[in-house]
Amino acid sequence: MPSPWGRERVSLSHGLHFTGGEPFLNFNLLLSAAQMAEELGIPSTFVETNCSWCVNDEVTRERLEQLRRAGLKGIMISVNPFYVEYIPFERTERCIRISLEVFGSNVMIYQMEFYRQFKRLGLQGKVPFERYLALAATVGGNIAVEMFLMGRAARALKPYYHSYPASAFFGEPCQPPFLRDWHNHFDNYGNFMPGFCGGISLGSWRELDRLLREGIDLNEHPVLRHLITEDIRALLDFARDYGYQESPQGYISKCDLCLDLRLHLVKHGNFPELSPLAFYEQMALDANS
Ligand code: SF4
To answer: What is the rounded radius of gyration, in angstroms, for the C-alpha atoms of the chain?
Structure first.
C-alpha cells in the first residue's frame, strides 16, 4: 500500500522497506532489490541504514543516487545511542545531509529526538553508551522516544531498567504485533516474522499466498498457539513442562521474558516457529561473551 501522500512518497508503515542487519553491506543486492521493486510497481520503497558505510561524501552520494535512479523512493536513517557507540556521528550527519539532497522530503530520521539531542550535546566520533548517559545527564530532562525492549536490546539494557517477576506480564496479549496487516517483516531465511518479534516465524514467505489462504495450524505450532490464543503465562507454563525455571533476576519486559522462554524451548524441542535458528545461536553466543 502506498504512503498516505502517494506512491512516490514514503512513510514508516507503508510500501516496502529494505532493512537489516545493514542493507548497504551488500550494496549490489540492495540495488537489484530496488530495481525489482520498481519493475513490480511496488510503491513507497525505502531503505533503512545505520550509515556505517558513509565514509566520505563521494561514496555516500554515488550510492544514494544509484538507488534513486533504480527507483528507490527514500531512506530512513537510524539515530540512537546504540548506533553511535559503533558508528561515528559524522557519518550519520553526512548521510542525512546528502540524503536530503538526493531524496528531498523522503528522508526519515529515526529517531529525530535522539538526533536533536546529539546535536545539543555536540557528539563527535563514536560515543560509548556509558559516556552518552553521563553527557545526557548534564543537559537534564528525559526525552520521550519509543523503545522496544525486545531481542538483544532487552538483554543489553537490563542493568538500566527495573526487573519484575514473570507474573507482572501475565494478561498482556501479543495479538497486535502478531496478526496485523501492516509493518511485518520478511527475513532472508524465508521467514514471515510477525511485527518486530525476532526469532518467531509465522511460516515461509515463499508460500505466503497459501499461508494467507489456509492460515496457521496451531496444533503444529504450540509456541504460536500460546502466544496467539492465550498470553505469556501460557507460554511460561508450556516452557516449564520442558524444565524452564523462572529467572530470579526477573525480566524488564514481556518480550524479555518471551525471549528467555524461547531460548530455553529451542534447546529442548523442535519448534518450526522458532526460526531462524541462527537468531538463537547468536543470542546464546552473546550471552556467553
Ligand atoms: S512477548 Fe514475544 S511474541 Fe509477544 S510481542 Fe514480545 S517478542 Fe513478540
So the answer is: 20
Q: What are phi and psi of 66, to 5 degrees?
A: -60, -45
Residue 119 lies in a domain: yes
Has residue 81 been placed in a domain?
Answer: yes
Closest residue by Cα to atom 1, ligand 1, is: 255
Provide the ipTM. Answer: 0.99
- The SS3 call for residue 193 is strand
Tens of pLDDT, residues 207-250: 999 998 999 999 999 999 999 999 999 999 999 999 999 999 99
How many angstroms separate the alpha carbon of residue 188 from the centre of ligand 1? Answer: 20
Q: Could you list the residue range(s) of the whole structural domain that residue 219 is in?
A: 166-288
Residue 222 falls inside a structural domain: yes
Q: What is the pLDDT of residue 157?
A: 87
For the chain, give the number of residues: 289
Residue 1 lies in a domain: no
> From residue 66, how far is each of 21, 63, 70 by CA, in Å?
21, 5, 6
Residue 254: CB within 6 Å of ligand 1? yes
Count of the separate structural domains present in the chain: 2
